[in-house]
Amino acid sequence: MRKSLDVFRSVAQEAFHLVNRGSRQKDYGDPLAPAIIAGRMIGAILHIPDVSPTRVPLIVMALKIVRETFQAKRDNRVDIAGYAEVLERIHHELAKKTLVGRSSRRIRATHRVRK
Questions:
Q1: Structure pTM?
Q2: Measured distance CA(29)–CA(102) in Å, rounded
Q3: How many CB atoms are closer than 10 A to CB 104?
Q4: Strand runs labelled E in 32-91
Q5: Burial (Cβ within 10 Å: 0-12, 13-18, ≥19) of residue 9
């Protein structure tokens, strides 16, 4: 099925679909939790502090870029674009968590003032 879609989709469109609406979204869901765990594992393997979840997709992209330099394939480019989309989703999730944290602190502070 994927081969027939290649003709009609750009690399970015295909990657976006796979990450947000395709099998990868169904199989793996939100990318933040796996990126946090992978960052911990990478840190442990390298004997360094945890790697930030925003760095994990960049590390995988580096591998995909190397593969592309050895043998150019559309699949490599789709994966690179896909991990860029994953990185964007991780930033979005982290921003939401930051906003929620700030809102709850603001609500608690407002509540204290009104007492």
A1: 0.78
A2: 25
A3: 10
A4: none
A5: middle
